[in-house]
Amino acid sequence: MLVERIDPDWQWTKYRKVSVSDKGVLKPSYAIEYQPVLEASTLHRSLAQAYQDHRASGKKIQEVLENWISRFGLISGTMELFDGTEFMKEASQVWWIVQVFNVLRTHENPDRTIGIDPALVKSTDAVTLRLDIPNPGWLVGMDGDFVPYNWAIIKPPPEPTKMSDGTTNDHNDNISERKIGKDQIKWNVTYLELLEILGLTISKKLQDGVKLTFEALTQKPTKKAFVLGEAKLGEATLTGFPFLGSQRGRSGSRSDRDIRLEDTYAIETVLQPKDLLTYIWMLCAEELTELPDVEFEPCKNFDECGNVLKRDRARACKHCNKLVVQRNSTYLLYKKSNADYADYFECSKSLTKIHEVRKHQREYCTQNCSAKKRSKTSK
After folding, report:
1. CB 259 within 8 A of CB 228
2. Which H or E run includes 95?
3. Under a CB-based contact definition with an 8 Å cutoff, are residues 12 and 273 in contact?
4. Which of 95, 248, 344, 355 is most buried, most CB within 10 Å of its CB?
């Protein structure tokens, strides 16, 4: 059994308006139920951006919290137990993970391809490949419970090993830096250990937070006739309709279209997070498995929604139809080793010899976001 999907019908609560007092007391209003999988499918990057804005502009934590909770809701816990300091601590950890993903995605390889594909890295190369990533010691409120912090700041280097030929191996060439200063800007790590650090960090965050369940096992009634609430079939009254395999509407929601009694059934397993923070770390796990095949760009309504769009990094050239990726302002062939310079950058079927791609049709993260932008523009 292979389970990869997050339950698209899983819901969370956000608020139309939220105020945070100087003492950190929340005052929310107008609770709104929404489906994060459909409306915030790159939420880990939105949280990282919120923390980045706080770091770069000195935006007050109070303002960050009000914006976030009104857009997406609490990441965990309840209003009464809300802790703004803990929120920023979690946000900083997600920010660190996203920065590492960016390093892996933009790394330039010796063969001039961009991004490290783990499926193409040999075991011997993983030991010698070294990367500079942000020092986790910069993060506020960290301790040994955060795996990268423990690895970089606390964990001592291994003891030198005496070899059979009488020489000593001090491990400097095949281990990451240890016990670095908190003021050091970059942390130099081997690719081998970095993968382990990322895997351990994300796994620990997801521990006991993910539930295996079935898609469409419990479906909420809607106002439409012959839908998921109650229907008459002869003398029998049918209710619930679990596992009904009805098609989803354009926004991905089942409630967008009529569900007929003659629709068939589909039994699919899905993963359901216990809270929004678990969902965010599930997205981190998803991105780790997709490196370096995806990239991200802001939604056209990013200033209001705070979401980014996930794109397939490789796109077909509209002239030669070969898969290309963008590097600065130029497109080059995707995942082609030992190629000549011209093979990489020049298109054989374009009059200008330049690879070009068509514009993305999707510019907004959701239909609601697009509608909000259009309504503002028309005023």
Report:
1. yes
2. helix 84-106
3. no
4. 355
